[in-house]
Amino acid sequence: MALLEVDEEFLSRKGYVYDVTSENASTAVVIKDFPLPPAYSPQLVELLIRLPAGYPQGNPDMFWTAPHVQRVGGGDPLAASEKETHLGRVWQRWSRHWSASWRPGVDGLHTFIAATINELRKGV
Questions:
Q1: What is the pLDDT of residues 99-123, one digit of tens each?
Q2: How far apart are CA 96 and CA 94, in angstroms?
Q3: Which terminus of the chain has fewer Cβ atoms in its 10 Å neighbourhood, N or C?
Q4: Pair 51, 73: CB distance under 8 Å
Q5: 44 Cβ contact partners less than 8 Å away, ≥ 6 residues apart
Q6: Strands of 63-66's sheet, edge to edge?
Q7: Strands 63-66 and 70-71
Q8: Distance CA 66, CA 48 (A)
Q9: What pLDDT score was predicted for residue 32?
């Protein structure tokens, strides 16, 4: 599956190195060397975003990281202790859900990644 041109342009503009594959009815976007805030260890991970079959009409939900991330003070981040297998490997699921109304044609990977970064900055 291919990404929307606007999403490809965003990822390239940000300098992200990424792979796109399909899994079941979703498109999997894996961003390599995704930086995490200082509250977490390790500092660089792979970030998995699963785009639903109806994307961009439907929004992505949750995100996943590999390898396993812990808070620097110890322990798993809040609502991030579950492990799931995607793309033939184990990922840490961060149970974070889109709280605003998704706006097809306005929202996309750029807003989802911004929301992901905002969640990570909380350091919980």
A1: 778 999 899 999 999 999 999 999 9
A2: 6
A3: C
A4: no
A5: 33, 34, 35, 36
A6: 17-23, 26-35, 44-51, 63-66, 89-94, 82-86
A7: unpaired
A8: 8
A9: 98
**Model pLDDT for residues 36-87, shown as the tens digit of each residue:** 999 999 999 999 999 999 899 999 999 999 999 999 999 999 999 999 999 9
Query: Do 27 and 49 meet the contact criterion of CB atoms below 8 Å apart?
Result: no
- Taken in order 43, 62, 83, 85, is the CA torsion positive or negative? negative
Structural domain count, the chain: 1
Q: Cβ(109)–Cβ(99) under 8 Å?
A: no
Stated pTM of the model: 0.94
C-alpha 90/C-alpha 106 separation (Å) is: 32
Domain residue limits at 25: 5-121
List of residues 6+ apart from 102 with CB closer than 8 A: 58, 59
Length of the chain: 124
Inter-residue contact 94 to 77 (CB < 8 Å): yes
Nearest Cα residue to 34 out of 105, 86, 109, 102? 109
